[in-house]
Amino acid sequence: MMKQDDQISISVRDLVEFVMSSGDIDNRRTAGAKKEAMQEGSRLHRKIQKRMGSSYQAEVAMGHVVQEEQFQILVEGRADGVITENGGSVIDEIKCMYGTIDKLEEPILVHLAQAMCYGYFWCLKKELASIGIQITYCQMETEEIRRFRQEKSFEELETWFTGLIHEYVKWAEYLYRHHVRRQESLKELEFPYPYRKGQKELAVNVYRSIARGRNLYIQAPTGIGKTLSTVYPALKAIGEGHGDKLFYLTAKNMTRRVAEEGLSILREKGLYFSSVTITAKEKLCFLETPECNPEACPYAKGHFDRVNDAVFDIIHEEFAITRDRVTEYAMRYQICPFEFCLDISNWVDGVICDYNYVFDPNVRLKRYFAEERKGGYLFLIDEAHNLVSRAREMYSAALVKEDILLAKRLVKGRSRKLEKLLESCNKSMLELKRECENYVILEDVNHLAVQVMGMSAELDVFMEDHPELENRDLLLDFYFQVRDFLNVFEWMDDGYEIYSQMLPDGTFQVRLFCINPSGRLRACMDQGLSTILFSATMLPMPYYKELLSGEPEGFAVYAESPFQQEKRLLLVAEDVSSRYSRRNLREYQKAAAYVQEIVKGKAGNYMVFCPSYQYLGELAECLEEAGFDTESHRGSGGESDSGTGAEFDWGADMEAEGKPCASPGAGRVRMIVQESRMNEEQREAFLEQFTKAGEQGPEDASRADERQTSLVALCVMGGVFGEGIDLKEESLIGVIVIGTGLPMVCPEQDILKGYFERHEKPGFAYAYQYPGMNKVMQAAGRVIRTMKDEGVIALLDDRFLQPDYRALFPREWSDYQVTRLNRVGKQVKLFWQERRS
Hints:
This protein is an alpha/beta fold. Helices cover 43% and strands 19% of the residues. A hairpin with a 4-residue loop joins strand 3 (56-67) and strand 4 (72-85).
């Protein structure tokens, strides 16, 4: 839905689907997939249209304006075809579908309604008394055709359309009035704070890029306030007519909260702008496990009968529609919170969500992006460095041999035809397996793909015929695996590598691996007006421009850091290494000694980032021997699980055991250790320890340097605490990064390296060094979040001093100091003395 001054425009499809929605949510039909094919059906659409002869006019644009008192409603779209025959006309609406079509006894109501809208528009334009309405269904795999046809009089169509548009008028009136107030507020909106150094220039560049309809890549150093520096100019651009809907895309929940806070700050300054935060279905669902059908879920039953009332209520009552607000209203109206959340997005000005909802072909919001449709969308992509790895996941797919055999067992005795097709696929996989010891690069998998296509068509039929099958969830998982594999196979380009692999658990897979996702990402970005990609670690910029959109000449800016460098000490150790070949007790002990020396400089909160959980465990043991009392952090309650660690007197404990004492200035230390697979509650409890430890009462505020307790957290580099968290001022005063962050050597990284080398790129840098250095910079960035922050960053690995690594340092790191274990304590102590003076 687009709003332009006094006109509200809506597509025919969106109108009929919105007004005519009713009944239950039920994912059991056609394996839970949407029955109508979207983008995949475009080829068949064109094929059917070409068969129809000279009397068939394809893709006919139509529209109709409904005049209300203060505004107009423009309903528009493209009829798939108009047939002229025997002096009359027939509207043809083509729908390509998965599953069987021979069981359809009549056209699906919303499909018929679309054709009736076009029929009404054509009758008006050509002054016809009646018109034929034809719905053409095409089965995707077999290309079987089935048609339904009926005659409608103009009076019948006019009465029907008047009733349809009447149901939409109150919604259009809301959009019109909201749009007027929003535009007025945007014109008057001012930046909420005095600009920091470099911040105004950044905002100006964002505005100009949007106004010119181009993409922008931003290296935005920590502390510049990148959220407001991008959101504010984007809003001002919308106020000037450069765009209509804002998508703020993030990779993590914590970053989404920052976006919500940014809009909240602007609302306090007069912004009239509504937004919704889309949360994953698994986190929103009221059930323990999502089961989206009316028998298993009371919120699915009758959902579409109640959801529009809920949406109308919430958009009139709330501006910042967060996860809590969504669940509150969903419970009140007894509807599915996830589908409710998606429907809300139609009526708000801004959407805060994960990358998936714009870029992932399986998850993206089809209401905006299906069939390559474009709109007045502005995409703000936060922490854009994450999009490379995320996109590779989105656009890759694999077929697992053992899953084929499992599917065969599940259907045994129920469909002999499907059993045989599954067995044929399994035999092809077996032939590939015999040639594979570890992994093998394959030239193509055309023969396998043809077999899978045939099997998939029969699997569609089976899923449709067996909605109550025992262990249906297992077969459903396989169904989606097959669907993903075929979809990826269809759109593969030169950015892919195909390989077979024996997995560690003994299973065998054939994988379609997307290495360079720029083509797919760029196609998604092109559906909007402008995309702003920003991160504190978009270095080296040419690497990200190449992989994110394939725009080597794309406009990029390096924002100037407002942070005073004298508030931060950056140390690079030349006498320690985390190389795998040098990982031994002596190196672990040396790293532990560095931690002790740095923490000794000032009591406070510190994070130590390790290259792996294995290294973290070795380091923890060394620190325990040095006097640390280590415990895991689970955050589930109880003293031992609280994650606070045990308090102890560092100096006293070590002296009592006859160990050399390296006590910190104030003497007491607590330590917590990150565990793998921590849930959201445990992660939040882990981070709470920093805010609690950093809090001081009124009596202590003037004696910050006399704090008696230190907190040391051992974390894994590249993990959940390595980016997207804000620990400000006394909440964190030091970060120690051990190692260069190189990904573990494995077939996938090896394939990445080989691919880029064949494309005349530095394979090791693209596959290992650049991703590793990004994790290092992200971890280091945890300690400097605001203009008031002070802290120490220590990089413990002699490789950082090599020219190729120093070339990757951001500009703000030009003042780094080289250190050794025998002098690091003095350097840290001097830094804190200077900060106190």
